[in-house]
Design a protein that fits this description.
With about 290 residues, the chain is α/β, with parallel strands linked by helices. It has one domain: 4-Layer Sandwich (Purple Acid Phosphatase, chain A, domain 2). The chain contains 7 helices and 12 strands. Strands 3-2-1-10-11-12 form a 6-stranded mixed beta sheet. A hairpin with a 3-residue loop joins strand 10 (about 235-240) and strand 11 (about 245-255). The protein is globular. The N and C termini lie close together (about 10 Å). The model is unreliable at about 285-290 (pLDDT under 50). This is Phosphodiesterase YaeI.
């Protein structure tokens, strides 16, 4: 049906790696995504020059729908007056004016949520009830056959290594709501290493049949990778078909001269629950074709 290139945590500023960013642009041109998701932390310290550089980079990506959300680094940390009164001003000037947004695309409805919480939890983030109501209203208007996707910077599930990865407060409440709304996919960043799993890995919840596929991207263009992706860079390539969600985790390797596939994951679509026939034989062909 369609392909998503999922990048995150660009961190324009002192930790940004230009040669890796050039490789991202080359990969995007070669893969030809239908949608690009950039899940927050465009800047390192929410400075105007950093946002301007991020905007210039985003404008070089293929001309397809670009879904974004702010990250905690897109909010001033030490400029307290700005953090209190105009926390997203520069993000809104350079990246996008809306903090919570609905994207109605062919075959998909994508809800982008601002998980930053400048006054309460600048690191761990929050999704409040008003935002859950916003998502409920957005998905209520979605076509019946649309794939339902949520994008937020902060994570709803911890990485398997559990290094500095406490989930957002009340993440389980959000997962229950997303299950009720038939959300199939959650995309995020923040952890600075990739994680691909299912909400059932974290929380059985009210719906124990299929859960929600959760895909976290590592830092795509900075030296701030953590744990198993320390000083490494990654992005995700997601292919949504009629019966499956297939994710390829790409990592940057100097000896490969750029990004290369590192791991692959495949899940049945929520309404399928299981595969009716073997899928191993077509994984390679499917992941690298449109």
């Amino acid at each position: 049906m369609f392909n998503i290139m999922h990048i995150s945590d660009l961190h324009f500023g002192p930790f940004f790696v230009p040669k890796v960013a050039e490789s991202v642009l080359k990969s995007a041109a070669a893969l030809k995504p239908d949608i690009i998701v950039a899940s927050g932390d465009f800047s390192q310290r929410a400075k105007a020059a950093e946002f301007a550089a991020a905007r210039k980079f985003l404008d070089k990506l293929p001309p397809v729908p670009l879904i974004v959300c702010p990250g905690n680094h897109d909010v001033p940390l030490y400029r307290v007056w700005e953090r209190i009164f105009t926390p997203h001003a520069l993000y809104q000037e350079h990246i996008t004016a809306k903090l919570n947004e609905v994207y109605q695309l062919p075959h998909a409805t994508i809800v982008s949520l601002d998980s930053t919480s400048p006054l309460r939890a600048i690191t761990n983030g929050r999704i409040d009830q008003a935002q859950l109501d916003f998502a409920r209203e957005a998905f209520a208007a979605a076509p019946a056959d649309a794939v339902r996707i949520v994008v937020a910077h902060h994570h709803f599930a911890p990485a398997p290594d559990y290094e500095r990865s406490s989930v957002m407060p009340r993440a389980k409440r959000a997962i229950d709501v997303f299950n009720d709304l038939n959300v199939e996919l959650i995309l995020g960043g923040h952890l600075h290493r990739a994680y691909v799993g299912n909400s059932l890995d974290l929380y059985p919840g009210k719906d124990r049949k299929h859960g929600i596929v959760i895909v976290q991207s590592g830092t795509t263009t900075s030296r701030r990778g953590r744990a198993r992706e320390r000083e490494k860079n990654s992005f995700n390539w997601i292919r949504v078909t009629e019966d499956s969600i297939r994710i390829t985790h790409y990592m940057y390797f100097d000896d490969a001269g750029g990004f290369a596939p590192f791991s692959r994951h495949i899940y049945p679509r929520a309404d399928r629950q299981y595969f009716s026939e073997p899928v191993e034989a077509d994984i390679k062909t499917d992941l690298f074709s449109r």
